[in-house]
Amino acid sequence: MTQTRISWLAIILTFSLAILLELMTLPYMVLFLRPEWIVLVLLYWLIRHPEKIGIATGASIGFLMDIISGSYFGINMLSMSLISYLVLIMHKRLKMFPISQQSIFVFFIVGIQLMVVYTLKSTIGSSDASMSYLWQALSSALIWPVILIISDRLVFSLR
User: Fold this and answer.
1) How far apart are CA 32 and CA 55, in angstroms?
2) Is the pLDDT of residue 6 over 80?
3) SS3 for 131?
4) What does R_g of the chain's alpha carbons equal in angstroms?
5) What is the mean pLDDT of residues 60-68?
6) Which residue blocks in 24-126 are alpha helix, DSSP H?
7) Model pTM greater than 0.85?
8) What is the architecture of the domain spanning 2-157?
């Protein structure tokens, strides 16, 4: 019972830190390189503990992202539900991948998430139609090993 509470504490702490990093303002020149912190933390928990985090959690986090970003309700919720489903299908294989292959997978998953968000926003008419979101996917893939190591250490220390 205590181990369950501690792991939920780690989940709450990592998502809170990701939300703070997402809200941090950056200069316009490096804004296109901002990693998708909340998506990375969600991916971490979906890969490590799929029995605790699922599609409903992804949808809830997406709804929270809709509120935080001030975008239309349901855009981030749909994209986070989609990537949660895709990761849950493959989570057993992803655990066995080396970190470099996981980073490539993270690039594609974050790219899919951002593509869904930007496609829906451009359909509504509130976004440009460029492919600049791939830079965010690339920076997320490059930061993935750091997220993996820090989160593993946090979970281990909170046991």
Assistant:
1) 28
2) no
3) coil
4) 15
5) 92
6) 37-48, 55-69, 75-96, 99-124
7) yes
8) Orthogonal Bundle (1.10)
